Each structure stands twice: as C-alpha cells, then as structure tokens.
Amino acid sequence: MLLISFETALNAVMPFVIYLALGWIAVRIRAADRPFMERVNRFCFRLLFPFMTFRSIYNASPEDMPSPKLMLFAGIGILALILLLVLLVPVFVKTNARRGTVIQAIFRSNFVIYGVPMTEVVCGTAASSIAGVMILECVSMFNIASVIVLEMYNRPDGESGRISGKKLAELVVNLFRNPLLQGCLLGLFFFALGIKLPAAFEKPVDTLGGIASPLAMITLGGTLRFAAIRKNLRVITPVMVIRLIVMPLAFLSLAWALGLRGAELFLVLMIFGTPIATASYPMAANMGGDGELAGQLVFISTLLSLLTIFAFIFGMSQLGLIPAA
User: Fold this and answer.
1) What is the DSSP letter of 65?
2) DSSP string, 208-239
3) How far apart are CA 32 and CA 29, in angstroms?
4) What is the count of structural domains for the chain?
5) Is 109 helix (H, G, I), strand (E, B) or coil?
6) Which of 63, 114, 167, 212 is such that its CA lies 20 to 30 A from the CA of 13?
C-alpha cells in the first residue's frame, strides 16, 4: 500500500509539475514571452475551460450513485466553508483583489483531476464511478461559488463587499456570462436529459476539454516570477496550511464521526484535501482577482500536495479507514 499510495500521488502530481516547467523553460529560451502567455491564458479561460467543465459533468456516470449522506455532507460542507471564509478572510486580507483570490483558493479543490484516478487506484474501479457523480455536484458548486466570490470583490479597495440590488443584478448577469459556468450549465442540461452528442462532436469536445488544464498550467509556468513568491509568503503560507492540512483533517474527522466509511470517506479527502484547482488561476486573472498570487497558490499547492496526499493516504490505510492493497 505504501508503494501504491506514493505512486498514485506521484502519477497525479507530476504531469502538472512537467507542464509548469515547460512553460517556465519556454520563456527562458525565448520560445515565448510573458505577454504571449497571458494571451494564451485568456484564450484558455474564454474558449477551452467551458469544454472542460462541460466534459466533466457530461461524462459523469449515474449507474453507481453515492449515498445521500455523502452528497449532503459535501454540499453542506462546501457551502458552510464558503460562508465562513467570506466572513473571516476580509478581516485578515485587506485588498479586494486578494480577498476573492484567497477565498477561492481555500474552498476550490482540484477534485476534477484527482478524484476519479486516485479513487480507482486506492478503492477500486467500482468506487471511481461514485467519484464521477460527485464531480457533478462539486464542480457545479465550485464554479458557481467562484464566480460569485470573485464578482463580490471585483471592485476598488475600500468599497464594501456587500451586494446592493443593482450590484446583485450585475452579478447575476456576469454569472451567466462566465464561460466556465456556461459550460457547467450546458453539461448539467445534457446530463439531466440524457442527451448524447454525435460522435463527430463528442471527440473534439473531449479533446478540447482535455487540453484546457495542461495548457493553462503551461501558461502559468511561463508567467511565474519566483521573486514574487517570497513577497507573497505571508499570504501563501497560511493558505497552504489551511488548504492542505487543516481542512482535510477537519472534514475527515467530521465525516468519520457521521458514519462515512471506505471509498466515501476517501472521497471526502479528495474533495477537501487536494491542491487548489487549476481553473482558479485563469478565473482570478480574468475577473479582477490577484492573478499572480492565484498562480503561485496553484503552483505551490500542486507541489506540496505530493507530500500531504501521500501522508493522508498512508495514515488512513494504517488506521484501517480505507482498504489496504
């Protein structure tokens, strides 16, 4: 189990490290420059990420449904976490661009990328279909909440985050203009009605959705400035501790106390303990957030998660909370 756990975490994380390194190298050898990478990032956000969110929901399998307890736990847990962050983060983070970025970073995990493959390796093929259905719930909530939070703080410093009637109307309009949410809603429509795309369309949709995350990570690597990471360490450090250690510990403990076991308990780790979602970087960069900070948070959490996810999987297997290999 030790070797399998390490190999699972390594296989999930290393592709992201390679994408980041490729972008960083491309700028260093002058195959691209930062303005080009920023334009590609906008292209990903506006045109490719909608395919990714559509695909993740469209491909969900309804055959093996998760228990109502798990679905309620995840939904209520995500909502409670977001409300708590909206109350607490503005007390400690003083600029609006960073407030939205930090809140999104803490609640929005990379469950889309990590959930199914890790669940399949650790808990078996049958359990991976449960992860696919949970993606439907979590991706929808993550995308809708991210748009709302970033719009709340997309304003000059000093202005309140409270939403007036006029601002609420603008928020709703911008919500439905958001490319990621449009892909998410379309995916929900197709999933709910059981509509299947013709093969001629399904292949390009799948391909375009598949390249969105790698291309976004490459552009992130090309725009990283390591000197700026030191400047942001006072924000990055607590976010990493909360995202990768405190949250999974808290939610796993609560889930166990409520009776979730085995694969469903493991899925709680995937929802609340995986690194920050790749999509949080282009969203923050394109919606008035601190794109530089968002990119650094994605980058560092992706690297550190190799250690934290391994530690959680090893600990859970040693305690008999997940099946041993």
Assistant:
1) P
2) HHHHHHHHHHHHHHHH--HHHHHHTHHHHHHH
3) 8
4) 1
5) strand
6) 63
